[in-house]
């Protein structure tokens, strides 16, 4: 009887973690972001530093050098995608995102949240890539170069490679 009880406890200990092996994303399914993300123990965590947009017109100055907020967001997310790929991860592994937006001169110095969302929604919450991270979006005074409107950093989590 004692062996049976030990066998049942051992089986439960082995099978219980298997039930909690997936990342859980919660919140309103219609929302563009997850209001909460739970990452189980044992996952690899990847931290990607803030990425800024690539130059789209080297002869231009100011915002025109990097494009509008939507263009910059797309460029930044593509850079994040490349960084994640270098670590064996994808955008579907992103669990937390921090977005910094500079006030757009064309929008009276206000951040172009709608433009950022247009770019963001081409990568997250789509039929091809339905996972959405938790996220914060803030307006800042400036970034490292004149004309940059977007900087994004992410944290990603993935199952360890065997």
UniProtKB/TrEMBL annotation:
CC per GO annotation: cytosol
Extent of the signal sequence: 1-20
SUPFAM superfamilies named in the record: YjgF-like
Keywords: Signal
Domain of life, source organism: Bacteria
Single Gene Ontology MF annotation: deaminase activity
Classification via Pfam families: Ribonuc_L-PSP
Protein name stated in the entry: Enamine deaminase RidA, house cleaning of reactive enamine intermediates, YjgF/YER057c/UK114 family
Annotated organism of origin: Caulobacter endophyticus
Source species taxonomy: Bacteria, Pseudomonadati, Pseudomonadota, Alphaproteobacteria, Caulobacterales
């Amino acid at each position: 009887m004692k062996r049976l009880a030990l066998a049942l406890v051992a089986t439960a200990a082995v099978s219980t973690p298997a039930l909690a092996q997936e990342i859980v994303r919660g919140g309103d399914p219609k929302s563009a972001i997850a209001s909460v993300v739970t990452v189980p123990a044992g996952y690899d965590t990847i931290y990607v530093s803030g990425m800024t947009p690539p130059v789209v017109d080297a002869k231009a100055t100011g915002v025109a050098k990097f494009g509008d907020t939507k263009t910059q967001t797309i460029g930044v997310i593509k850079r994040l995608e490349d960084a994640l790929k270098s670590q064996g991860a994808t955008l579907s592994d992103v669990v937390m995102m921090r977005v910094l937006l500079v006030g757009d001169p064309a929008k009276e110095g206000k951040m172009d949240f709608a433009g950022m969302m247009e770019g963001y929604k081409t990568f997250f919450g789509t039929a091809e890539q339905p996972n959405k991270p938790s996220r914060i979006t803030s307006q800042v005074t400036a970034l490292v170069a004149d004309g940059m409107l977007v900087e994004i950093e992410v944290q990603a989590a993935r199952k360890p490679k065997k």
